[in-house]
């Protein structure tokens, strides 16, 4: 299984979350299923979220689409990063 781990530093968590939530169907259409959403304890505007990736090619196309950058800017993302991950054996 492939996962997508993302981190966004945002200007205002409440504003960001409302816009992020409004894209739930677009995420699903892109082969992304939200599994977890976290905020850093020391910096609640530092947000981490994990998607299960059901279609990697659609997910990569979604991220590469200029509309994704526009949505990030509109939601107040200051900086962000994402990583496609695959499971490694636990100890």
What is the secondary structure topology, with strand pairs?
Elements: E1 2-10, H1 13-22, H2 24-29, E2 32-39, E3 46-53, H3 56-64, H4 66-75, E4 77-86
Antiparallel strand pairs: 1-3, 1-4, 2-3
Instruction: Flag low-confidence runs.
Output: none
How do the strands of the widest beta sheet line up side by side? 2-3-1-4
End-to-end CA span: 18 Å
What name does the CATH topology carry? Answer: Alpha-Beta Plaits
Mean pLDDT: 95
Radius of gyration: 13 Å
**What is the helix tally?**
4
Run of helices and strands: EHHEEHHE
Total number of distinct structural domains: 1
- Name the structural class: alpha+beta
How is the main sheet built? Answer: 4 strands, antiparallel
The general outline is globular
Proportion in helices: 25-40%
Q: Which CATH top level class fits? A: Alpha Beta
The count of DSSP E runs of length 2 or more, i.e. the number of strands, is 4
Strand content: 35-45%
Notes on the protein architecture:
The chain is of the alpha+beta class and 91 residues long. It is 38% helix and 38% strand. It has a 4-stranded antiparallel beta sheet with strand order 2-3-1-4. A hairpin with a 6-residue loop joins strand 2 and strand 3. The model has no long low-confidence stretch (mean pLDDT 95).
Summarize the structure.
With 91 residues, the protein is α+β, with helices and mostly antiparallel strands. Helix content is 38%, strand content 38%.
Supply database-style keywords:
single chain, 91 residues, alpha+beta, Alpha-Beta Plaits, 4 helices, 4 strands
